[in-house]
Amino acid sequence: MGYLSRLSNVVRSEGDPKIISAGRSSLGAGDRFARALGWFSIGLGLSELLAPRLVAGPLGMGGNEGLLRAYGAREIGAGVLSLSTEKRAGLWSRVAGDVLDMATLMTALRRDNPKRSNAMLALGLVAGVTALDIIGAQRAAGGQRRGGGRGRYADRSGFPQGVQKARGAARDEEKRRTTAAAS
Amino acid sequence: MKALVWHGKEDVRFDTVSDPEIEDPRDAIVKVTSCAICGSDLHLFHNFIPAMLPGDIMGHEMMGEVVEVGSGMNGHLKKGERIVVPFTIICGQCEQCRRGNFSVCETTNRNRHLAEKAFGHATAGLFGYTHLTGGYPGGQAEYVRVPFADATHIKVPNGLSDEQVLFLGDILPTGWQAAVQCDIQPADTVAVWGCGPVGQMAIRSAILLGARQVAAIDRLPERLGMAEAGGAIPINFDEESVVERLNELTHGKGPDKCIDATGMESHVTPSIPDTLYDRAKQMFMMESDRPHVLREMIYVCRPAGTLSIPGVYSGLVDKMPMGQAMNKGLTFRMGQTHVNRWTDDLMRRVEDGQIDPSFVITHTVGLDAGPEMYKVFRDKRDACIKVVMRP
Predict the structure, then answer these.
(1) What confidence tens digit (pLDDT) does each residue in B302-324 have?
(2) Among candidates A12, A19, A150 on the partner chain, residue whose Cβ is nearest the Cβ of B225
(3) Which of A94, B184, B239, B361 is deepest in the core (most CB within 10 A)?
(4) Crossing angle of helices A29-50 and A87-106, rounded to 10°
(5) A residues 103-162 closer than 8 Å to B (CB)
(6) Of B7, B56, B359, the CB nearest to A156
């Protein structure tokens, strides 16, 4: 049982049921993985947005702080989307962002960049995170796996006496009642 | 006992919890024989309704056998009786209850100070819902305590199955009230947005109340098929323009009555740009509800028509075309359902075989399957429309 559940007991009355032990959750491994990636995205986005020099310097990308801030905002957006019920869209948007990050890092691999090796390492890390994002997107819930076509419930009118007899049945009853009461 | 417990966003668990206890002479304990997952449970599941707390027991559609009663029943309810529990907890004595406005009972919300701050005035206590409505433990459990049980119950006549009567506690009277609020006339066209369980009940109600034609709007073939089986004209908004089709059905006049059985989580799709706008704002907590259906109803409804809103909204909506609504002279009617106002009449209709609400059940499972079924229902997997659980 989580501490939040225990804490919430203060607002419950004496006779309200309280958790004794927690059981199986609707939150699957894919959902938890998506959440972890979402928070990672927000954390990375905040550092790019608030401290772009700390990110750009070690990569030899000084002068690109504005671009990094924009990427930070993008990361935060993708993170929020990954934490929402549209987590699959969020994780695929992260994959697209990863591709953009890798393309940008490629520009730091030029021979005259003294931090080239750092950029190389960062490229490898982004490639790894991209792989995790792809796995996460594939595992995330939220896909619409439908079943059945229009005919699936074609026999379920809900009217045991048929639709035709049901049409206006309540109105006709009311009319009869009103007429009887008036006469 | 076992119960489905809310722990956070998309996190409902099959937990072991302590048994409920009688607290007040008007309480009763009910052994739940059937309960269901409602569309509004999904709003809680997605954490779109504020003031849920980890440890809250879910569920407001339930029925069962009375196993214990407090000392203050005055003969209104006895041990061994079989009842449906309405989702609105009512005292039956306050001025609003006496007027039949049960969902705004002035007595039963035990967190009235919170509700008054949020809504201006307190509304009735509800089972398995936000703490703004009392935070009462719900009925997706083996047992539930029913407060004010001498008034908060619907007795089940012999010979009717759980499946036939379970929905008298919520979705059947909700669909019925939505249609009654439309004051349907014989020449009316009624359009229903959303063919989930409440939409299906609203369609049947509009048919019984004598609408000339009922249009059903959704995008899932199985839901549209079920709506068509109940006498509606299906409109798939993924395949055709809702506005054009409704105007075609009404010779350009628009539907006389519009029912929003969708609520705050209308479908998001790139082909309807305002849904993307709403979803983005909702995600960054700049808007709590997605009101696309309301906008479309206001736009397409015939002037001097009525909009009936059984779909749940929780807070703030943005970009509402009030100019259109005002100039067209539209009437808005909405609210949580005054369940007990309708149940005697609806029970008689079920007994007479005029309607059998069990048609909507597509999945019946044990309570232990609940956590998974929340996701199946949410994702519309396996043509899921209504889940009933047997604890």
Answers:
(1) 999 999 999 999 999 999 999 99
(2) A150
(3) A94
(4) 40
(5) 141-161
(6) B359
